[in-house]
Write a structure and sequence with these properties.
Structural class: alpha/beta
Transmembrane segments: 9-31
CATH superfamily of the domain at 118-364: SGNH hydrolase
Number of strands: 12
CATH topology of the domain at 118-364: Rossmann fold
Strand content: 15-25%
Strand order of the largest sheet: 5-7-8-4-10-11-12
CATH class of the domain at 118-364: Alpha Beta
Keywords: Membrane, Transmembrane, Transmembrane helix
Shape: globular
Helix content: 25-40%
Length: 365
């Protein structure tokens, strides 16, 4: 081969390699690490708002846990893709349609049969005022499915806890109370009855990672310790619904929040019974206008904490035999819901009703 032939051979080989690699881009399936750090883009929320009409194409798979878990694996994060639909064409209320499934919100769920099959009779929501909204939505959904719910007791709407709510459960010592950072997150309990099905629904206030508003020193020095080692000791919940983060954590540095979140998860691992099913709900956006802007520092903190939560517990959320579960990306859903409302109450009760309906549908659809 002459010297000049090498040049033509090299050029031909390069062109052939380019053609083959170009074709392979279109023919070979793409793969994405399900736990990649950039699996979700904060400034490109994949949710939008539409009015429902008869020509709107929908996914016909049910919103079951298995389909939800598959979507979580595919996205490498809490599922957040889908669309809000506003009332139109005779449909009641509004609904969120995940991209991977379809659920008619106003179709009753077989809650009694579903909960009975799983032996769920004591449901606890835990958290600040957002957790209290999850609780209120749960009661609303149960009533909408034929239950009669009766208020048993409730704390007053004050920053200082009402220790009378816990009477008869702390004979081990004197219950000390300190002000909380929220005045709408106190304890409340309902009994909900339908035929032979009775569900005890309760909310307990928890305003920070290290909440100390209720304690019995020297043995129980945090609110969590009082709840699980004293108040709930003899009657632990079958299900816990926990929303993150809490009120005063939203403005802390990300590094500090991540450290405290990890310690909180470790503490919950120690305190929550192995027989208890637990849902970890990512935090939603603030209920104010334009706070989903990428320039909003609080919003960035919320997304960072949600990401840290998935990074820490994602493998458990994807384990079908684990009792801890993730949920939809409440931040993405709340950001996209805000254009439907024009005041500070944009994330009102109707929004949380949809969320809890989606939560129950994971096991009862």
């Amino acid at each position: 081969m002459q010297k000049g032939d090498y040049k033509y051979c090299l050029v031909g080989t390069t062109i052939a390699a380019f053609i083959i690699s170009s074709i392979s881009i279109f023919l070979l399936p793409s793969w994405k690490d399900p736990f990649a750090k950039n699996a979700i883009k904060f400034d490109n929320t994949p949710v939008h708002t539409k009015r429902r009409d008869s020509t709107m194409k929908i996914e016909h798979k049910p919103c079951t846990f298995s389909n939800f878990q598959h979507a979580m694996y595919s996205e490498g994060y809490f599922p957040g893709k889908g669309r809000w639909v506003l009332p139109s064409n005779g449909f009641q209320g509004f609904n969120f349609l995940p991209s991977f499934c379809y659920l008619e919100r106003h179709t009753p769920l077989p809650v009694a049969r579903c909960f009975g099959r799983r032996n769920w009779s004591r449901i606890l929501t835990l958290g600040d005022s957002t957790g209290r909204k999850h609780f209120a939505a749960l009661v609303t959904i149960l009533e909408g499915n034929g239950y009669t719910c009766t208020l048993l007791r409730a704390e007053g709407g004050e920053y200082l806890p009402d220790t009378s709510y816990f009477e008869g459960t702390h004979q081990v010592g004197t219950l000390i109370k300190e002000p909380r950072s929220c005045n709408a997150c106190g304890g409340v309990r309902y009994n909900c009855i339908k035929d032979n099905s009775t569900i005890h629904v309760e909310h307990l206030g928890l305003a920070s990672w290290k909440d100390t508003s209720l304690q019995i020193p020297p043995r129980f020095n945090t609110t969590l310790e009082f709840y699980f080692k004293v108040y709930l000791k003899d009657n632990p919940p079958d299900v816990i619904v926990l929303g993150l983060p809490f009120l005063q954590e939203k403005t802390q540095p990300v590094e500090r929040n991540t450290q405290q979140l990890n310690k909180f998860i470790s503490k919950m691992t120690q305190l929550v019974p192995l027989t208890t099913t637990m849902f970890w709900l990512p935090a939603g956006a603030e209920s104010t206008q334009n706070n989903c802007s990428v320039t909003n520092n609080v919003n960035k903190q919320i997304v960072a904490v949600n990401r840290a939560l998935f990074d820490r517990l994602g493998s458990r959320f994807l384990n079908t035999s684990d009792a801890w579960f993730g949920f939809y990306d409440e931040h993405a859903l709340s950001c996209s819901a805000q254009p439907m409302w024009k005041d500070a109450e944009s994330l009102g009760s109707a929004f949380y009703d949809v969320l809890v309906h989606l939560l129950l549908a994971l096991f009862c659809a």
